[in-house]
Design brief:
Strand order of the largest sheet: 1-7-6-2-5-4-3
Distance between the termini: 54 Å
Order of helices and strands: EHEHEEHHEEE
Structural class: alpha/beta
Strand content: 25-35%
Shape: globular
């Protein structure tokens, strides 16, 4: 019996690495990134607790011009922030407490929201990749342990056709 071929992994179209030295710089990165985003985009954020995922998302919300304060949706799992200016709404998901994959997240209807929204998922690895082959993966590294170091190393990697022509290098300035 022949085994079906595994689906091809989406190709990496673009990548950039940045060093961020303050929470304000992280918010500014979010504001600049918002200019590259459009309805249908999935952004996956990963990094240690306190790395700056929600701070980056706060900047995205400011850049997208959405309603409501962007705060961590840890206990509500997801928040929808409608646009104040006709742009796409921001759907902010915190999948930290969700153990399962996309099946457990089906109640959130992310697949229904994706075409008209920008969806940002914190802690989404292994849980939302099935939504689309086109996504932006943002990994934030920070020093761990007893430190007050504000330095973060951020890697943004665009996967799939959507990001093939993206100008992620514009985020560095």
């Amino acid at each position: 019996m022949e085994r079906p071929a595994a689906p091809a992994a989406p190709h990496q179209a673009a990548e950039i690495r940045l060093t961020i030295t303050s929470p304000e710089q992280m918010r500014e990165l979010g504001r600049r990134l918002a200019a590259l985003l459009r309805a249908g985009d999935l952004v996956m954020l990963s990094g240690e607790l306190g790395a700056g995922k929600t701070t980056l998302t706060r900047g995205l919300g400011e850049g997208l011009g959405v309603r409501g304060a962007v705060t961590s949706p840890t206990f509500v799992i997801a928040r929808v922030h409608p646009s104040l200016g006709g742009g796409p709404p921001l759907v902010h998901v915190d999948a930290y407490r969700l153990a399962g994959g996309l099946d457990e997240m089906e109640d959130l209807d992310l697949d229904v929201s994706l075409p008209e929204s920008v969806i940002v998922v914190e802690w989404g690895e292994g849980k939302v990749e099935e939504l689309t082959d086109d996504r932006l993966q943002v990994v934030i590294h920070r020093a761990v342990g007893d430190t007050t170091d504000e330095v973060r190393h951020v890697t943004l990697a665009g996967l799939g056709q959507r990001w093939a022509g993206a100008r992620l290098e514009a985020l560095s300035g």
